[in-house]
Amino acid sequence: xxxxxxxxxxxxxxxxxxxxxxxxxxxxxxxxxxxxxxxxxxxxxxxxxxxxxxxxxxxxxxxxxxxxxxxxxxxxxxxxxxxxxxxxxxxxxxxxxxxxxxxxxxxxxxxxxxxxxxxxxxxxxxxxxxxxxxxxxxxxxxxxxxxxxxxxxxxxxxxxxxxxxxxxxxxxxxxxxxxxxxxxxxxxxxxxxxxxxxxxxxxxxxxxxxxxxxxxxxxxxxxxxxxxxxxxxxxxxxxxxxxxxxxxxxxxxxxxxxxx
Amino acid sequence: xxxxxxxxxxxxxxxxxxxxxxxxxxxxxxxxxxxxxxxxxxxxxxxxxxxxxxxxxxxxxxxxxxxxxxxxxxxxxxxxxxxxxxxxxxxxxxxxxxxxxxxxxxxxxxxxxxxxxxxxxxxxxxxxxxxxxxxxxxxxxxxxxxxxxxxxxxxxxxxxxxxxxxxxxxxxxxxxxxxxxxxxxxxxxxxxxxxxxxx
Lengths: 260, 199
Known about the structure:
Chain A is of the alpha+beta class. Chain A has helices spanning about 5-20, 30-45, 50-60, 65-75, 95-110, 115-135, 170-175, 185-195, 210-215; strands at about 85-90, 150-155, 160-165, 220-235, 240-260. In chain B, a hairpin with a 2-residue loop joins strand 8 (about 180-185) and strand 9 (about 185-190). At the A-B interface, helix 5, helix 6 and helix 9 of A face helix 2, helix 3 and helix 5 of B.
């Protein structure tokens, strides 16, 4: 079985488009995080009237990608239930919807994933915080957030959740705060958020990503991308390792946390 | 003013998100504006709540402190809350853990109510960090009761001038650890509680 396309594979596709290289007509399956990144990339190609968008439309046979695209470009919201689901890919809308979504994720982690109640609570809280970050920080004001996707998948002792938006990204958001105006790049902005709890708000540290980093515990993968930068953290039995660098530019912020 | 958080949030037991907390804070601010009491004590009672994220606590409780919102963005975001003295109560272990995480990271303090008499805070404890200068000023205020900077300066008899006392007292007020009222040209300060322990 071929490995699923990762967020780095999706960045490679954007590099191909940047360089005017042809895209493959058929793609393998996307991972959940890959699907969110690719949906955001599709939006970028559509907005820039790139010929890549026509190829992208052909890739929408991938069910995860199709759902992520629908969630990003229209209002794909769920009912009001609190039942466990193995997978959901929805539009980031209001805080009530986010709370129900997080509750279903929590229940799924317990009932499908077999995670403890406290672990499930922590992970669901982290997902809710990251979805709320789209509302709080993706637009120029809380009242005008950019479009965003929130998604999760749960199987026995495994999970992935991903949140992505096509907004202004981490650097522009942090520049709202006079304390962070000296930041020059998306790479610096991601480092400030992950290591120094930087926030758009003038008072108090940013706490949204802290929960995600903590939820990693000692086993999992966290990946964060903004603009032309990414930062990955992998936790395993040997400890935590990090990697950061440049990716092909993509609007907004995309985050995924997984225990594969 | 007692704000029962469980009643405010409906069926939810696990609370997260600054947006949600910001809307709830809006309801509390409305109550403060409609209250007959000026600069009221606002007790956020978390009894019945399992967990609340640090972002949620930051936006709801610390959002009532001055300068809690960015000045950029929509006017709605920039508006300062009315003067109020937020304290917390009924903390579950998980809510307390997030509160401690936030105050330690922010280098600030929260006030946890231990004993109330109606709207009056009799005993409370500080959660978080207060630097030594502010701590000693607060101790002096707790010992002496309602005082001006001049009075504390006279009593202390140490090399801290009146301006420094004034600055420290003003800082305690902006952290909502002390109330103040005008008396002629001077501010008279008094601690938010009769007894205020630490930790």
